[in-house]
Amino acid sequence: MTPAARLQAAIEIVDEVIASARHDGPPADTIVSRYFKHRRYAGSKDRRAVRELVFRAIRRSAELPESGRAAALGLAEDEPELMELFGQPRGPEPKVDGEEAAVAGIVPAWLTSELSPLVAAAEWPPLLERARLDLRVNVARASRDELLGQFPGAEPTPLSPWGIRLPPDTKVDDHPAFLQGLVEIQDEGSQLIALACEAKNGERVFDLCAGAGGKALALAAMAPEAHILATDSNRARLSKLAPRAERAGAAIESRLLNPPNELQELADWKDSADIVLVDAPCSGSGTWRRNPEGRWRLTPKLLDRLVLQQKRLLDIAAEQVRPGGRLIYAVCSLLSREGADQISAFLDRHSSWISEETPIAAGRLDGAGRMLTPGHDRTDGFFVARLRRPC
What we know:
By secondary structure, the chain is an alpha/beta fold. It is about 35% helix and about 15% strand.
């Protein structure tokens, strides 16, 4: 493919990403893969170059662009050499007078007032920097020191004692350590949330919103003899846990929940869990480094719905915690309504519960919890709080 043809391909892909964001369709990575699945003529260099163009265009625009062409014209304002490709054979049509380019930005305008006060404008650029790849060592079966030398360019993560940091786009899914269950892909921030639970052998540990089980696997590595229950209401996500647990040698019970019947389906755990982790569905604003089009998918209506869902999940979780047990709440969000405000409201509803210092050496105090940010901690953005039920 010529450079002009690559730019035209990127425009077509971004058009699909925009449509997908409007209609809650597949993510950009899936769209890129699908595009080239039907264009076998494109070589690996072409695919890599087009993908880079696509994600540079997505990162540049905080607001949903009018079109892929508008996004590309915006990119060309920053990279004048791209403007020369407009009008070339197999490339995009020449720019016409009055044609508007997408406006550059980091945070959508409507979201700026929702950000935690800790996320000042000076910290916005790191929200979109390309994230490096973090691995979590399965400490039930190996040590970080044993594995560091097996990955080129590896270095220990500075905050998590379990983590290995690799360059972006490192491929690990065919590495022997991954195939043997000795490592899992997991951002350092997610590792710290598992560490904040301080799970111990013999405890009853409940991961309420387990998804594909990343944090449940981390808890199982931390406490191999704990009784761990991982639940979710999404069958497709939860089905990924069993093969991952088998690869890691982890004993994890899983259970599919059917809203709004969770309390009945969890009757055997009521008032008995030593730890309940609520890694709640959220805006994902802390993961824009990895999913920059998430800014295009989030709307005020969706945020309102997520905040209500988090409140409901916290109240469900509270009923499972034994007297003296602990509840850990986490969201990969930088928004106060999903973090500090959510916990403040919980403590208003459950006034006898006790807020505890989160036992991680990272982040900054944000209300009754801690906020980790890409700019301050070099992790994905997370809010995490730890609460204890009174005896």
